[in-house]
């Protein structure tokens, strides 16, 4: 505050101090991410100040989370101040923005409101501020510079009567009268604080003659004096200023420590020219410059992590893909069958997309060769026989991002050709496993098939087809991979087999088709003319799927998730028509691009092709007759499949007959998936 | 051992017990991985047995690491036994292999050697064994079944004189004479044990009349008796058998506990027909069946991890890519400039390929948004302001695979347009950074450029070009990426500028070329008509390279490493002619496929193209004039580049002139890499 000690002294003003709370920055972050994005245009915000602070504290203009709600309430006994927020997109814009111009613009508006008389009617226009910010949301560093514009009299303001405490000037009676008048005016106005008022006083009474006056000797007073000079310049020479302080000291109210002084109202040089102005706040070193607050350390780290993760995603929408529906992706519940090389990479990519609900199913333990290729495991996880993959994967996701909602199921998936009828115990375990898998598939939106055998994909393919869940399937060869979505059957309209069937005829040997809608697309087994069976029995080590070029699983895992996201962004989801390689030059169906049926990759050629193929009416997994048997007979049908050889499903679907009719050529492939065509 | 108690009893034989030591399995693992691979043909191995064990221990046939060295030494006082190893490729082959046939085959050979008289000359042919194994090298489970073939007399062998300890039959004098005769025969033969001998004895003397006899009443004795019956059948009715035991008891030698008995030598039924045989060992439960030993828990975990990691790699060679030179890959020293999204994924893929020497350079700290996209970091790494990425990446690699040789450098890379001349301190820091980078590039074989700005790639591009190091560069857009190798300049033949230059003229706007040899290929900057400068100054958040589809970095990181491996497998390495998209249908130049110059990927179309382009003689990074200035002036040249704007390099290389002559179209791209053409 001003501390003039002699009559010759000029009035000096203590500038407003900015007090920006963490809540303000948090709210700014949200606004930036969700509303402003790249919009740098000025925004209206609201702060408040309080005249009840103890002696010694600077006059603070507070900005908290409520600052962005300009029409919202002001805290009790505080006065509002409306300001302009300039939030820049880059630190560089923040640095090079023309601060002088911003100040002059604001000062001009104050001056104009004074000139026009608007400020006399509503002096709140005198109390405006500027806040220039740059929010580095990657580091949670917030750069800011605060400005409270104050118009200046060229010669300063001469003090006629130096400041004194009110109790030294007013009698106790006068003080009581002031307090009573203040309170009744507040009540009349329905407020708890008056930012400005005009008053007359006698020895006994205090009368408020207007709303104008102010509460502390801060920069605002300068604008008030300019207003008064402009208003009264010719009529009034000296004004008495009351800096009203409304404190509570040791439980009782006190306005005695308000300050009064008299100044000579200076002449304004020229009515039409805006006076000079000052107002940019000094930084903590006392120099003219911006301040920076680093909130990365004081915010709740887990919340910080959550909002940081969202940031990268939201950034995509700002300019690159404004139509991206992130919620659709983030809220998708993903079931990962297999937590090996593919499962780990799929989970990592899902995390990158902000997917929160991830469930693993695997029955394997982590072995020493896993960590270098399965990016959720470490050496420690292999000790003592190895942790369960499903459980360890959950632990790792939580370590990566504590906000994830991950679950693990250490369980087997029953498979065709792997009998379960050794004993009552094995049979009832298989039944439990089937029920658990059915429950899990029901509870999730997308099922990822990421196992290393062909036959383990059969049961989830059947269940997911029956439950109309989107299936994304990935399988590896040595340097080739397939990533595909299964056809998503239309919702069942009746229980009869014929309506569930795709009426269009198809054959297993058919090659690429165009414009196949999602519900007519094939599944993983549609291209095969042999039912799944125990494929691990006769495989040598190098025929197991884990023998692949190390980069392959990362590529296939990433593509499986990117394919899922593309499907989710399509208005028809899993029913979207399949894009093929020929569509690459056409207008893409989603903002993210194509929605293929299959991506078949060839690492040796660094090439991908996008075949699409129809569902096969004799498919051993998704054909109407298989789904019908499953839906009607449940586990008793499934156990027949588990306990039987290939021929059971082949007889059922009519493949046996087809075999007899056609000489189906066995196509060789290094992958366990037989009959894989490129 | 046999324990007949009456003269009517038949001789019974204690079978050999197999004693397979961890060293044997370890050596089998190595043989399987490096020599046998998928070869299932029978292998000759050597075990040994010892006749000095204390009473109560079974007669063991020991197999240890030395078993595969058939011509190697046998431990002192032990006798060798040669056998046949059948190591199968699958557990299923192990189970279904015809054990009866294996036994009969071996028995027939023994019989034949008896019939032919060969066994009389060299009775070691009587002492043969079979070992059937399956090594599950993923789990370190070893399945085995041991067989010591013994020919049988149909009616058994009648005991004439039941077994007694030698000391009950021989006088002390006779025992001393036997010991002396035994030792002198050993000495004469240059050995420490005699597996078989024939002896005559009187009350005073023991005379060895041949090498035939045996040391314990085990299965081998059966074959010996068949041999004797065949040899002496018509002449001799009863033989006395000495089971020679050569123990050391409480420090002094003792052969007193050898056993003697007499048997009636049975008649052989028919000279020409091989007798029946027995010999498959019972398992620990006493049933006929294989045994399994789980070594995953008792082996040194870190060594286990190391050999497990190698396994997947070696598996590739067995059938898929026999010509793969793994050592070239594994021994490559990789320098990763940037430990962010790309750096983490590149490091993970390198680990998958078994690369052991990985060095990170990064000056950033881990922020909360990193772990979900940068797969070497976790939430914990972000706390307290964040760990250094380079250091944390090293820690993580060590946690994944303790055998890795990783180092981290938390340092900045000076950049064009980022002045370093603020003070003597900043200048000397920059000089230190340059020297450190030069040292690191010298010490490594491949330099990966994985930063998120264009200009940070300039200095390493110049240094690596000058030092003729292979550079693999990866950069991300929102849904596009480029992975490329820089042209590898030919070794300098003189210091003159002209010889270092590629003489063929080229222009920056040129499109794809065919058959460009590696030394004429362009670098990252060759396609650009603007020198690198401070590109971060005016970028909004969404223009920073980290805003990309989450799967993109995994794909690009994986491809960068797979490209490196393909280059390393090419006989000409970095000088290999660049494969292009058109080469996809041709015979690939390496066993792993193509060796492109660039892979440009488009995630929205799930497509990659493989452009190749010539080095540009006005390139701001790899052109002869830039390299010449760098090599002659060193840091003083570099600091000029750091401190200057674009125009310095553009003036130097002649780009400025080119600008004036041609209206170079600025091509827009979402990536920070300007002028990126697809």
Automatic annotation (TrEMBL), chains A, B:
Which Gene3D superfamilies does this one have? NAD(P)-binding Rossmann-like Domain, Ubiquitin-like modifier-activating enzyme ATG7 C-terminal domain, Ubiquitin-like modifier-activating enzyme ATG7 N-terminal domain
Q: Does the keyword Protein transport apply?
A: yes
User: Looking at the record, which segments are called Disordered?
Assistant: 491-511
Q: Which GO terms describe its cellular component?
A: phagophore assembly site
Q: Which CDD domains match?
A: Apg7
* Primary location class: cytoplasm
List compositional bias (Low complexity) regions by residue number.
Answer: 496-511
| Cellular location(s) | Cytoplasm; Preautophagosomal structure
Keyword field contains Acetylation? no
Annotated Pfam families: ATG7_N (PF16420), ThiF (PF00899)
UniProt entry keywords in alphabetical sequence: Autophagy, Coiled coil, Cytoplasm, Protein transport, Transport, Ubl conjugation pathway
Query: From the Swiss-Prot or TrEMBL record, what is one GO molecular function term?
Result: Atg8 activating enzyme activity
Biological-process GO terms, alphabetical: autophagosome assembly; autophagy of mitochondrion; cellular response to nitrogen starvation; piecemeal microautophagy of the nucleus; protein modification by small protein conjugation; protein transport
- The chain's coiled-coil residues are 420-447
Ubiquitin-like modifier-activating enzyme Atg7 N-terminal domain sequence ranges: 11-206, 222-299
Q: Where is the THIF-type NAD/FAD binding fold domain?
A: 316-573
The record's function comment reads: E1-like activating enzyme involved in the 2 ubiquitin-like systems required for cytoplasm to vacuole transport (Cvt) and autophagy. Activates ATG12 for its conjugation with ATG5 as well as the ATG8 family proteins for their conjugation with phosphatidylethanolamine. Both systems are needed for the ATG8 association to Cvt vesicles and autophagosomes membranes. Required for autophagic death induced by caspase-8 inhibition.
Report the family membership.
Answer: Belongs to the ATG7 family.
| Assembly notes | Homodimer.
- What is the name attached to this protein's record? Ubiquitin-like modifier-activating enzyme ATG7
